[in-house]
Amino acid sequence: MTLPALSIDLSRYLNAKNLDSLVNLALIIIIVLFAFQLLQFTTKRLIGKRVTGQTLMLVRKGIRYTSFTVVVLLVFERLGINLSALLGAAGIAGIAIGFAAQTSVSNIISGLFIVSEKSFSLGDVIQAGETTGTVVAIDLLSIKLQTFDNRYVRVPNETLIKSNVVNVTHYPIRRMDIKLTISYADDLGRAVATLKAVAARNLLVLDNPETLVLVDSFSEKGVDILFGLWFLQSDFLELRNSIMQDIRSAFVAEGFGLPVLRVVLEAQAAVGSQGGVATGLGGTVEGTAGGPPALS
Question: Could you tell me the domains of the chain?
Fold first, then answer.
């Protein structure tokens, strides 16, 4: 069986009139795209320093989407497509699509609230539900996070509005609360003095606000002491590593039994000597000062 040969007469389309129209259309598209690129650049120069990063990102995306829409409309017009009939059909289809797009609309509205609240911005470290990471993008539908183990996580805006969001890096100063339990047989006053000396010797611990050493409670295991250290958020890992070693060395040198430690991190703004507004990432690590802590 022999298939019939297919032949297309390109001469019907590649005539002088059509070629002239295509060239004009291409020039119009190039000019429109260039104009919108220039508008994006000008907008960034004019308002870049006056608005937040996420607001600027949304403005630039709005300009980009508008430029694409204008280009599509120009193409339709040059091709002689009846936009009235097309928009009428789109309106009917839009009703059906609208019912299926309720989640997207909810995300867009939530995104507008997020941008207006300015609870966080690009580059901040936030905790959203079980996910903690750096904000790398803020869109109308979602935000994107880069976790500390280098994963890319998309969080819908509707989820953020309905849950608690913790901005870990909002304040430059944080407090690390270390809860120690020492034996009833140990000298409580000397233990408190030892902890104050440990804080004074560690260069990463801030003098203002003042270090907090508080006898918190009495438990079956012994006396619970709250040891609160203020530090710059950039020094978190270094301080956490060094202060554990300092506590262990000091308690061994003073002849105390090794205490049970629990570390609770707080991100706070310093208000007075001990005050603060908690907005940070909380976490607890427990173990003895003589060995590696275990998660609790």
Answer: 17-100 (no CATH), 111-167 (2.30.30.60), 173-295 (3.30.70.100)
